[in-house]
Write a structure and sequence with these properties.
The chain folds into two domains: 296 residues, FAD/NAD(P)-binding domain; 90 residues, no CATH class. Helix 3 runs parallel beside helix 5, helix 3 runs parallel beside helix 10 and helix 4 packs across helix 10. Strands 3, 4, 7, 8, 9, 10 and 20 form a seven-stranded mixed beta sheet that branches. A three-stranded antiparallel beta sheet has the order 14-13-16. The protein is 28% helix and 21% strand. The protein has eleven helices and 20 strands. By secondary structure, it is of the alpha+beta class. Strand 8 and strand 9 form a beta hairpin.
């Protein structure tokens, strides 16, 4: 029988030929100290990254073509677009509801797809989801927008929907399209190998595992995936505010008299508006990326509602509680802007109404008529990171542009673009940032999505 190793007068031979005993011991000490590493070979190499780090264990879902982190409106649009392109796609959502702020956050106004002057500017999945929001609940498409692409200057092409009804429609939609949904699953970290995002480490009731993919879409709303991958990001503060759906006898009476669907879901807003006006005096600003701030924000915003109820009951009597009370509370914080990528291009203030060569579509300003923003493709691309694209309110935009791009129509639109670009990247075995913008534009135009303001005039 052959021996595994042999002893000679020159010492032990274990495959370290031509090394003296002194060099052998020196290298052994270096290995122990972590100063020298042996080459990674064999089966072990398959379970390590290029820098020698151990890869997380693959979860039961195996490897996907595309992973979408975040099941809000942007994530839903991205996942559906990718799946329709023939990609094996998974959607990861930390709650048990799809829709994000639109549903879980009770922000139930699907803001306009038109410019306020009778011209529709946003198409594709953004319009498809608007119509889907009314499938199992109250609300109507505004007169003039039922079938055509253009309607009267007023009312604008927007709807109000039931959050719970929209959740049901979104779930059904995703399942019918074949998207693999992971509810109650938290993204814990981004798996990066040699500057390329290769997957996500997640945790749910099954424990912690990894999901791998050829491309990842960050639709978390707070650029969580991009940030954890090392992409440059920008953070901002939020003033205290709250949206809550209330039960009100006055609203119920108005509903029975007018039959208005919107009146069935009376909402009150407390605290600051989108500019911060109305927030309690001397109240602090909160960071949505700080765990303690998020907890304090939720507690203090609910205290605003408690104060409102106390004041109402003190004024109108304790019996008022039987007809005026909250029907449901948001199951997530309602901060408007928290963290976004500092991407290859930043959409700046005053970029509205301009021609952008690398635009992939348009978004209307929901606050005022006639303002239309072209969205450059590089605003979805993080710096210093491969195989990753961003969608929703955490794309690269600043100040006033962020205010326009954070809402539902823009989220759905950028989600569709991200899903389409991710699919093109996988098919071409490249990264979204390496795609030719012209190829992305061509694919969008084939879906009937206009790219520039001149295309809709």
């Amino acid at each position: 029988m052959k021996s595994i190793s042999k002893v000679s007068k020159k010492g032990i031979s274990c495959g370290l030929n031509k090394h003296s005993r002194r060099n052998f011991l020196s290298n052994a000490l270096k290995i122990t100290a972590g100063l020298f590493t042996l080459p990674v070979t064999g089966a072990f190499a398959e379970n390590t990254t290029s820098d020698g780090k151990k890869k997380p264990v693959m979860g039961p879902g195996g490897k996907y073509d595309i992973l979408v982190a975040g099941g809000g409106i942007a994530g839903v649009a991205a996942a559906v677009e990718a799946q329709r392109a023939g990609m094996k796609t998974a959607l990861i959502e930390k709650t048990v509801f799809t829709g994000g702020l639109a549903t879980t956050g009770l922000i139930y106004i699907y803001l306009p797809l038109c410019d306020g002057r009778g011209t529709q500017v946003t198409y594709g999945l953004s319009e498809e989801l608007l119509r889907l929001s009314l499938k199992y609940g109250p609300g109507d498409i505004p007169q003039g927008w039922e079938k055509g692409k253009k309607g009267p200057a007023s009312p604008r092409f927007r709807v109000e929907f039931s959050p719970a009804s929209f959740i049901l429609a979104l779930d059904e939609f995703l399942v019918a399209e074949g998207v693999d949904i992971w509810f109650d699953t938290v993204v814990c970290s981004t798996i990066v190998d040699g500057g390329q995002v290769t997957g996500l480490e997640v945790e749910n009731k099954s424990g912690r595992s990894a999901l791998y993919a050829s491309c990842v879409v960050d639709a978390t709303g707070e650029a969580d995936v991009a940030f954890r991958a090392g992409a440059p990001c920008v953070e901002t503060d939020n003033k205290l505010s709250m949206w809550v759906i209330m039960n009100s006898r006055r609203a119920a009476k108005k509903t029975s008299m007018q039959g208005s669907a919107a009146e069935r879901l009376p909402v009150i807003t407390i605290g600051g508006d989108n500019t911060g006006r109305g927030a309690p005096e001397r109240s602090k600003k909160y960071r949505g990326t700080n765990g303690r701030d998020v907890s304090e924000y939720i507690i203090q915003s609910r205290q605003l509602l408690i104060n409102e109820l106390k004041e109402c009951y003190a004024k109108e009597g304790a019996e008022k509680r039987k007809e005026y009370f909250p029907m449901t509370l948001a199951a997530m914080h309602q901060m408007r802007t928290t963290r976004r990528i500092d991407g290859l291009t930043v959409i700046r203030d005053h970029d509205h109404s301009k021609h952008i060569d690398d635009s992939v579509g348009m978004v209307a300003d929901w606050r005022k008529k006639g303002y239309v923003w072209e969205v450059p493709y590089p605003s979805l691309l993080p710096k210093k990171t491969k195989n990753l694209i961003v969608a929703g309110r955490c794309i690269s935009n600043d100040r006033d542009a962020w205010e326009v791009m954070r809402v539902i129509p823009a989220a759905a639109f950028t989600g569709q673009v991200a899903g389409l670009a991710a699919a093109l990247a996988v098919k071409n075995k490249t990264s979204p940032d390496a795609l030719e913008t012209a190829d992305v534009q061509k694919a969008l135009k084939a879906k009937g999505i206009p790219l520039h303001i001149k295309d809709i005039i």
